[in-house]
């Protein structure tokens, strides 16, 4: 019997859980569903397949949907054994469900729900049915995700303010379980906090709950500290998560770097569930810009293609596209670049074929918003974001055009991967790059300006960093940008960790690792000095005391566990351990000048491929279980054997 | 305090219940959801309104959705009292729900969910919020329809075939309640039937159920007879229905006609719930062609605009349109004609504004399928139906063009009603009518042919009846069609009750009431002779015995309670009682030559307007509570007084 999966219309599982995720934000007592269009799943689908049976066979369809099985010309209820004689048989499974996406599971020797079934929604041509490795048993309902759970007990309690403050060893996404007499439970309020200060601030903490009278459990939320007025009670935290195995290990011998890796790992895992989310306390929404950065971290830590596929499908939604992803123009563009990154990292033609029409329709949506020069412009309701910073967004904004240029390039490459002609996209890329240079490059300033319409000649790091990163700036302009923008203290600095990622990536890519290492130690090390157990949405070393938890003008508004702050994993993995994709294989170029005791394992694909490095006793030993690996050291390249050690004297 | 309604995104309630309806068909143990695209409701909406408050006021929002209230710049949870000071305040209510359409209810003196709220779905411009007279209390959930229920006990029991056959006084849509010991209940099967024969046929009856061990109730289904093997048990039927008041009363003094009216009334009420459905046993789906005919019956019986609005919205679904309604080309066109009929009968600018964009997009969808001459053609997957009959559907099918012509005309009229320029639609209508005459009119045969491409010159009643009914055939051609087609025995007769409606309507409209009356007596009277308590999907006097319940090659496949067979109400009301709309008012021209003892009340609008007639003692007394009424008798017109009697000597 082949492996059976639950089947659904591809993308619908993602749209369903996306809603669960995007509607899960709670703030001080009210629900705050995400403020963009929520594309729904299909309610009526049919799965079809034709078998040529060598012998008589039986099967049974399991489903929570309303529907029937048609085998040949006979109809059967779900749950009933269906017997098919030898020979060709066309099977279709009709399913309808209102409250969740319809899904079916087929048990049988030959006829079963393995790969090969096509799905239809009565509107579009058939597509291969969707499935997930998480739904493989007939007793499941794919509309109920089976989270992993772990119980944590407080590591510390403290009598304070007429109650007890409970502290857990780290931040969790948990339902607190209160065990005490019913009388004590009555009217009890539990105040949760990511910080001690938040849990103790009964007015302004984000989450305060009344445990259920029967369960003794309040809803699940981000919690490291909990305060409960009155005498001490028995308290446990039921932490809920999606168990995505960690496939990397990192030891540098530098305790600070190792600690940064460990905390980044915990941060990233908390923010990686069914989807990449931004933070576990807030917003808990799926943001395309945040997810884009998570792709880079994922590649060096979990290397899980599935969470990327789910996130990309969830973000994009159904066709036709009626608004930018998360309402943000640049987030639509980053989504396209995310698809490219995903495919570059893991391949996967099947997923590419599924998502390619959505890439095309997104670009077609953007095309309707191009001006005469091919620049992407905003319509009413479009949010031109790029970064929280003073930027000159008059007319078509330069930074957006850099991203668009990279999108045309990505579309050309993805076309090629599918065996399609990407010539039109390539031509668009070249034409746009030329227009950008003509309109935005300021020869006098030696930099790209944000806007060519305002006349202000405003130069920002954001626009110029993207020009470099998106391949718009050629070698000469790249050097000018480094000199005139990046190294120019007169150009306002990047203040957000979100854009810091792009800046550090560019700096590292330009080989300026000293600056990157310094930043790792000061910024992420600085958070550790404050006792961080997860990395924060933002960190300003100059701010101390309770004010350090403020953000968006809101006390405790800052998320203390935010995915984009896990980027040290990418920076260390990509530029210091030095692993990168190369053709069909990979190259690894460790910088032992920064990591003298390097001992690490890093994933090299979306399966179980890995490369390990260990520097010990004046020698470096590399190992991999995949072909196509190369070790680069001091300008020399050593092909790596498969399943054998390669040791190089240092 | 003004009246509060539950609010939702307009049309979403209809799409939700449409799925409940279209997924409710069950046949011999399996669910059979309708085989077309099911458009889903929106999951994330926002309701907005600005008040200029004369004094401080309070309100509270109730909802099963996730969300919050934003009043001014402060957010509040649902359920919490919100206090607004005097002056202008902008209120928005954000709501998200996965399993059903999000809806909100606002309780307050001034701020409440009466009319005036706008709804947004993050994709389209704001539209007035949807509401229904059925959802006006805060303790309701608009996703749970509050059906009316009534208990029926068997009127007869009979020991037979080792069990007991229970008979109810009429056909019901009911859950049977079995009262007996738990032991007796175990393993019990209840066999239901629309006919005695069906309930006794354990193999082939449509519904056989096992009552729940705790409730003693099987699911709800169409039932007049129930057979339960073994000793007699206490049985009751819990009939479920939407209580739409009957606003007509009809007495003709002819017992057969009166009985036909009564049975048609019961038939129609059973098939009129949240929507017009085709039949209560099968399919229980919402079909546009069936619904179109129901509009005509409704006008003379319930005169309920709401069920029409719900049905029209449910059928049409969301934009963009991706396929014909029910997959059937002519059903898309009949939907447009239905909108016109609805507006002609009840007015209602608000509904017209809501549905007009959907009319336009349907026509735009059709436009993409026009050939060079402006004829509507089928694409792969389109079902060209018109009728179950031998028709020549080669090339563009003539009957479809007749309907399309009427659609352009309807669109022009509806444009006018909205104060828009309908010139383009009118021009299309005229151009199409000319093309039809040029291509389909066969001067030699004196009739329209089905196809001008096949060369077969096939003449059908269907195409010609629609040519008359859709206003394509002018006076001269009309006469030729009557002679050469309708009265020509060589042209195959109409065999379906569905198309019989169109034929009888045309005959009656041509004043040939003798034939219509004869048909009423023989066809509908014939079913009564067979003991019908509801009118059947089809009736062939030549077939007797169990075979009379066969249809679609399926024993008991015939629906014995089918909406389209309720048309005597329309025929009697429109042509014999003689009530018709006229301008802003109505005219009533009773045919006392056919109905000597006429005593009837008929609705004249969608409110409580009525007209009554009573022929007694050589005089006819008419009464109405609405202005603009005229009595027509023997070629004379008598304006009707409002709230007073007008008596005319006969």
Please tell me about this protein's structure.
2 copies of one chain form a homodimer. The first copy, chain A, has 650 residues and is an alpha+beta fold. Chain A contains 15 helices and 29 strands. In chain A, the strands form 7 sheets. In chain A, strands 12, 13, 14, 15, 16, 17 and 18 form a 7-stranded antiparallel β-sheet that branches. In chain A, strands 6-5-8-3-10-11 form a 6-stranded antiparallel β-sheet, with no helix packed on it. In chain A, helix 1 (12-22) packs across helix 6 and helix 5 runs parallel beside helix 7. The longest helix of chain A is centred in the middle third of the chain and has 20 residues, at 398-417. The mean pLDDT of chain A is 97. The A-B interface holds A 16, 19-20, 22-23, 27, 29-38, 40-44, 66-69, 75-78, 80, 94-100, 121-124, 320, 322-323 and B 16, 19-20, 22-23, 27, 29-38, 40-44, 66-69, 75-78, 80, 94-100, 121-124, 320, 322-323.
């Amino acid at each position: 019997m082949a492996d059976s999966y639950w089947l659904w219309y591809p993308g619908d599982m993602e749209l369903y859980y996306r809603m669960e995720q995007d509607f899960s934000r709670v703030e001080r007592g009210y629900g705050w569903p995400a403020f963009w269009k929520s594309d729904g799943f299909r309610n009526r689908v049919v799965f079809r397949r034709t078998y040529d049976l060598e012998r008589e066979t039986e099967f049974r369809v399991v489903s929570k949907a309303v529907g029937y099985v048609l085998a040949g010309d006979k109809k059967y209820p779900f749950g009933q054994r269906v017997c098919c004689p030898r020979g060709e048989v066309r099977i279709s499974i009709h399913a309808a469900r209102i409250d969740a996406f319809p899904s079916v599971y087929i048990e049988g020797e030959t006829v079963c729900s393995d790969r090969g079934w096509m799905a239809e929604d009565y509107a579009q041509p058939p597509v291969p049915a969707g499935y997930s490795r998480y739904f493989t048993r007939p007793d499941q309902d794919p509309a109920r995700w089976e989270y992993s759970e772990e119980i944590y007990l407080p590591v510390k309690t403290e009598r304070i303010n007429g109650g007890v403050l409970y502290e857990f060893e780290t931040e969790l996404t948990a339902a607190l379980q209160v065990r005490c007499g019913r009388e004590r439970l009555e009217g009890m309020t539990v105040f949760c906090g990511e910080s001690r200060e938040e849990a103790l601030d009964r007015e302004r903490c984000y989450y305060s709950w009344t445990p259920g009278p029967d369960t003794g459990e309040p809803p699940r939320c981000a919690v490291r500290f909990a305060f409960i007025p009155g005498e001490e009670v028995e308290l446990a935290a039921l932490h809920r998560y999606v168990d995505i195995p960690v496939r990397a290990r990192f030891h540098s011998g530098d305790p600070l770097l190792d600690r940064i890796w460990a905390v980044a790992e915990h941060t990233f895992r908390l923010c990686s569930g069914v989807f990449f989310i931004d933070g576990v306390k807030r917003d808990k929404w799926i943001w395309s810009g945040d997810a884009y950065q998570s792709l880079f971290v994922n590649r060096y830590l979990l290397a899980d293609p599935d969470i990327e596929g789910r996130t990309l499908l969830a973000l994009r939604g159904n066709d036709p596209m009626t608004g930018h992803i998360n309402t943000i123009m640049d987030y639509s563009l980053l989504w396209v670049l995310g698809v490219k990154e995903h495919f570059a990292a893991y391949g996967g033609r099947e997923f590419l074929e599924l998502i390619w029409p959505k890439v095309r329709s997104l670009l077609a949506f953007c095309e309707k918003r191009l001006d005469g020069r091919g620049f992407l412009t905003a319509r009413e309701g479009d949010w031109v974001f790029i970064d929280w910073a003073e930027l000159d967004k008059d007319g078509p904004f330069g930074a957006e055009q850099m991203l668009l240029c990279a999108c045309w390039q990505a579309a050309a490459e993805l076309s090629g991967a599918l065996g399609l002609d990407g010539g039109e996209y390539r031509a668009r890329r070249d034409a746009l790059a030329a227009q950008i240079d003509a309109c935005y490059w300021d020869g006098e300033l030696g930099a790209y300006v944000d806007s060519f319409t305002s006349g202000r000649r405003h130069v920002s790091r954001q626009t110029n960093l993207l020009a470099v990163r998106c391949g718009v700036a050629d070698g000469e302009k790249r050097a000018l940008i480094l000199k005139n923008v990046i190294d120019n203290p007169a150009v306002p600095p990047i203040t957000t960790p979100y854009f810091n990622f792009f800046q550090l990536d560019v700096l590292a890519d330009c080989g300026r690792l000293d600056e990157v290492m310094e930043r790792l130690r000061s910024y992420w090390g600085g958070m550790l000095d404050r006792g961080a157990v997860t990395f924060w949405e933002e960190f300003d070393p100059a701010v101390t005391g309770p004010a350090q938890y403020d953000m968006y003008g809101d006390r405790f508004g800052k998320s203390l566990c935010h995915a984009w702050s896990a980027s040290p994993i990418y920076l260390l993995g990509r530029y210091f351990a030095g692993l990168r994709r190369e053709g069909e294989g990979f190259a690894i170029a460790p910088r032992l000048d920064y990591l003298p005791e390097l001992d690490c394992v890093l994933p090299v694909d979306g399966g179980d491929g890995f490369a390990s490095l260990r520097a010990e006793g004046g020698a470096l030993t590399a190992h991999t279980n995949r072909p196509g690996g190369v070790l680069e050291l001091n300008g020399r390249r050593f092909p790596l054997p498969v399943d054998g050690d390669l040791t190089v004297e240092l």
